[in-house]
TrEMBL record:
Bilayer disposition of the protein: Multi-pass membrane protein
Sorted UniProt keywords: Membrane, Transmembrane, Transmembrane helix, Transport
Domain Major facilitator superfamily (MFS) profile: from-to ranges: 237-415
Pfam families in the record: ATG22
Location, primary (coarse class): membrane
Top-level division of the source organism's lineage: Bacteria
Protein's UniProt name: MFS transporter
InterPro entries tied to this protein: Atg22-like (IPR024671), ATG22/LtaA_families (IPR050495), MFS_dom (IPR020846), MFS_trans_sf (IPR036259)
Compartment list: Cell membrane
Transmembrane regions listed in the UniProt entry: 12-35, 55-77, 84-102, 108-128, 149-170, 182-202, 238-262, 268-291, 303-321, 327-349, 361-380, 392-411
Organism: Bacillus spongiae
Length: 415
């Protein structure tokens, strides 16, 4: 692989740099802690507030799972991919900023706004992922996809540091406003960071593979979608990969999105959680790029096995967690594999799909991933409420990783 990246590859990678600020600050770190405090002040128990967050994530992913394949099929027409991307990107940025203006007494309204922001972020990611086939070649996909995740982790640390600094300064009376206001400022920082650094993608990337426009595009899109759905089982490698992905990515997404709520239930302070999450981002960056490099030596499939095995150990270890040191160990294990497993899954799938139908097939990729993301948070929420312990909820995710690994073994190597 030649070392120099093209303008299109760099612009595509830079969106991970932009959007990852949302992933760490809104999905993982500041907002869950902000919401947990608001819910606690409203008299909601810690177990129930964690469960409500899980249900909210499930609702937002269900909505997008329903829309993804339909919108992806329509977006395969010439010139529509970027328009759909821009709409969902704008939706996500707008509602992320809006979180800063909702009163903390309205914890349920915070969850509703978070739902729309999540739909915007995840919706934009459908078309962003599908752009991978437009910006690079099959031979470079593993490396470019992994580098995107790596730069995403690096880029997310900058607004994260800014947000943590403001929050800690307000907690120590170094700034003339409350911690609540400081958290709200972090939402504004996220929206600005996400918006500004998406400009290269909007400016430099175009849809190279597409279907020519035709009369009644919406009706014909539904016809094509129906035909693909009926025939998807004929794409045996693709179908098996999606089935494996459905299970193992469920556990990955659930652990990422609910990690801070889990840490709070274990009694870790907000400050400790923020520091741990920052270090996790820093450690995850080189490991993501390393996964891409190693995939060129050992193949992407073998590296996916490695990532899944690490996550199985994470779930088992989480069951016995008791201290802050245990949570540190858990976070570092997650950091070693979360970017790599997502990056290689994306590039593995991109190599399997017909390029002119990339949006349509990434819509299916999304629906498998999003339906899986419904099951995981629901499983954690229900198990936590039934047992009265979040540890059992995380441990229950082991079965998903095992099933995913077994099915993945039947997928032929695409290298």
């Amino acid at each position: 692989m030649k070392k120099k990246l093209t303008k299109e590859e760099n612009s595509w990678i830079f969106y991970d740099w932009a959007n990852s600020a949302y992933s760490i600050i809104i999905s993982t770190a500041v907002f869950p802690l902000f919401y947990k405090e608001a819910a606690t002040n409203a008299g909601i128990s810690s177990v129930n507030s964690t469960a409500y967050l899980g249900y909210t994530i499930a609702i937002s992913t269900f909505i997008l799972a329903m829309l993804g394949p339909v919108l992806g099929t329509i977006a395969d027409y010439d010139g529509l991919k970027k328009k759909f991307f821009t709409f969902f990107f704008a939706l996500g940025v707008s509602f992320t900023a809006l979180l800063a203006f909702i009163p903390t007494t309205q914890w349920w309204l915070l969850l509703m706004c978070y739902t729309v922001a999540a739909i915007g972020s995840a919706g934009a990611n459908i078309f962003y992922d599908a752009f991978l086939v437009d910006v690079t070649t099959d031979e470079r996909m593993n490396t470019i996809s992994a580098r995107g995740f790596g730069f995403g982790y690096i880029g997310s640390t900058i607004p994260f540091i800014m947000s943590i600094a403001i929050i800690l300064a307000s907690q120590n009376d170094l700034l003339p406003f409350s911690t609540t206001t400081a958290s709200k400022l972090s939402f504004i920082i996220t929206a600005l960071w996400w918006g500004i650094f998406t400009i290269p993608l909007l400016k430099n990337i175009r849809q190279r593979y597409y279907i020519e426009r035709e009369p009644r595009p919406i009706m014909n899109s539904f016809i094509r979608l129906s035909k693909t759905f009926k025939e998807i089982r004929n794409y045996r490698p693709l179908f098996l990969f999606l089935l494996a992905y459905f299970f193992y990515i469920d556990g990955v997404g659930t652990i990422i999105t609910m990690s801070t709520a889990y840490g709070t239930d274990l009694g870790l302070s907000a400050t400790s959680l923020l520091v741990i999450l920052f270090v996790t981002q820093v450690v995850a960056a080189p490991f993501s790029i390393l996964y891409g490099r190693l995939s060129e030596i050992f193949t992407g499939k073998k590296m996916l096995y490695v990532g899944i095995t690490v996550y199985i150990f994470v779930c088992i270890y989480a069951f016995f967690i008791e201290s802050t040191i245990d949570f540190w160990i858990l976070a570092m294990l997650v950091a070693s594999s979360q970017g790599g497993i997502q990056a290689l899954s994306r590039s593995y799938f991109a190599k399997l799909v017909p390029k002119e139908n990339s949006n349509e097939f990434f819509g299916f990729y999304n629906i498998f991933g999003k339906f899986a993301s419904i099951m995981g948070p629901l499983l954690v929420g229900i198990t936590a409420q039934m047992t009265g312990s979040s540890n059992y909820g995380v441990f229950s995710l082991v079965i998903l990783f095992i099933i995913g690994m077994v099915i993945l073994s039947f997928v032929p190597e695409n290298e």
